[in-house]
Design the sequence.
């Protein structure tokens, strides 16, 4: 059985060498706190291992869409959309509907009809003059006839002479002229050439826009910051001295312009990956080889022993840790089923010999009292001596044998050899005259019984008088009668 790293830190269960972690835990050994559902891709996992949801998402795992601004008191949110109750409408169910509608001449806003010009009534159904002609005209057949000096469909606009000549705006019937113009209708120019459209006229003098100068603001100029030693103004363009840049030559430049391999900030180059030096002109190795290798001239890392990868960040494993026996992951060899050891080259035995033996050449050498390919079966003493069957660690002896290992033969009554009436040879009893049976425990009849009588334990008897039919034998099977015992 494959073990899991660190026993899954007691926060999960081990399945085929892989940790299946409890909720809110992750990592190869369930050692890392995680957020529910990985925040569903709609948020980030905060320091307290709770999801900080992106805008528009909510719930413990950021899996529920929210309605922007809520749905007010007139509806409820479902999957990011407000569903409005009767008498409410709008994207956020925040507007009341208008009873009966507003017809073709109005629109409903929060329960009230707002009528178009020329219409009135609760539902904008009545034709009227807009705004009652603003008290500056008369309503004739729903049309305003305005007084002098006012205009517009509702006579609300105070009119100015000649529309201020296009050089100002009309405010309450009076022209507010733009700089450089004056007069009731803004028709009179106050500054030369109208300041060339590059400035404003104040007290009959042009105040030029940035970048322009001269009495009529007709000449291009540079910012006052464009000055020696940083730059020089020519035709309105600031020409920068070496080491400076920007429209006003006020920014410090970087050496070599960072060779187009970095960004210049405050006179310092911030180089793109793979380049270094003050001007980003030198190739560098990724991650500085992580301090675990040497950077070669071609900007590749020559890793020190025990490290690997483009940036020498990963640790290597012992030689031999390779498929199909194992794979190396940052210095640790992860073994395939059936192999073990720090380099995964050691073959393993079935079920690790069940903890009751040692593995030698992929075979279990079991401890005393255990047997089987994986040492999971109880063994019997001496293998029952070949004279019995082992069942769950106990010998079931064949007839004529006994003992824990079935090693005892010819044992009879009283635990004596052949019941004390014979001798044991080649695991069989040879009985003295007058005795029989496999253990010499039955008497024989001397002389032999005559006629229809049979011998029963040393006495001749008629068969009908015998206690049991199986007793009508003269000599028990499995024994031999001896005329005399011969020693040796």
Sequence:
């Amino acid at each position: 059985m494959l073990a899991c790293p660190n026993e899954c830190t007691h926060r999960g269960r081990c399945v085929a060498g892989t940790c299946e972690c409890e909720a809110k835990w992750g990592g190869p050994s369930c050692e890392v706190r995680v957020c529910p559902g990985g925040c569903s891709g709609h948020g980030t996992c905060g320091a307290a291992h709770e999801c900080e949801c992106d805008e528009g998402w909510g719930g413990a795992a950021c899996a529920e869409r929210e309605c922007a601004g809520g749905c007010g008191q007139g509806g409820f949110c479902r999957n990011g959309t407000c569903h409005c109750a009767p008498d409410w409408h709008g994207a956020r169910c925040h507007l009341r509907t208008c009873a009966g509608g507003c017809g073709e001449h109005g629109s409903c806003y929060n329960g009230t009809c707002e009528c178009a010009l020329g219409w009135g009534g609760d539902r904008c159904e009545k034709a009227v003059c807009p705004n009652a002609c603003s008290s500056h005209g008369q309503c004739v057949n729903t049309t305003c006839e305005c007084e002098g000096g006012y205009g517009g469909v509702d006579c609300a606009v105070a009119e100015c002479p000649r529309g201020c000549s296009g050089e100002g705006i009309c405010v309450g019937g009076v022209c507010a002229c733009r700089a450089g113009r004056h007069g009731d209708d803004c028709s009179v120019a106050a500054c030369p050439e109208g300041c060339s459209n590059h400035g404003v006229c104040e007290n009959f003098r042009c105040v030029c826009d940035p970048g322009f100068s001269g009495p009529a603001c007709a000449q291009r100029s540079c910012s006052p910051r464009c000055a020696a030693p940083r730059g020089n103004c020519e035709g309105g363009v600031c020409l920068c001295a070496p080491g400076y840049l920007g429209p006003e030559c006020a920014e410090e430049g970087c050496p070599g312009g960072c060779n187009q391999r970095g960004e210049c900030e405050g006179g310092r180059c911030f180089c793109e990956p793979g380049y270094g030096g003050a001007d980003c002109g030198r190739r560098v190795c990724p991650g500085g080889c992580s301090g675990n290798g040497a950077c070669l001239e071609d900007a590749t890392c020559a890793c020190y022993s025990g490290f690997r990868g483009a940036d020498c960040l990963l640790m290597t494993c012992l030689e031999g840790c390779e498929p199909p026996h194992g794979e190396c992951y940052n210095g640790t060899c992860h073994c395939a089923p059936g192999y073990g050891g720090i380099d995964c080259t050691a073959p393993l035995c079935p079920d690790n010999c069940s903890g009751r033996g040692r593995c030698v050449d992929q075979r279990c050498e079991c401890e005393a009292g255990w047997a089987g390919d994986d040492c999971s079966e109880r063994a019997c003493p001496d293998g029952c001596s070949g004279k019995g069957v082992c069942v769950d660690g106990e010998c079931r002896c064949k007839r004529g044998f006994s003992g824990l290992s079935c090693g005892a033969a010819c044992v009879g009554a009283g635990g004596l050899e052949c019941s004390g009436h014979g001798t044991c040879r080649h695991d069989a009893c040879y009985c003295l005259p007058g005795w029989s049976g496999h253990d010499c425990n039955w008497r024989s009849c001397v002389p032999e019984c005559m006629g229809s009588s049979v011998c029963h334990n040393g006495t001749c008897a008629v068969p009908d008088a015998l206690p049991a039919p199986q007793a009508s034998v003269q000599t028990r099977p499995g024994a031999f009668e001896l005329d005399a015992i011969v020693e040796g």
Notes: DSSP finds no helices and 59 strands in the chain. Residues 138 and 145 are 5 Å apart (CA to CA).
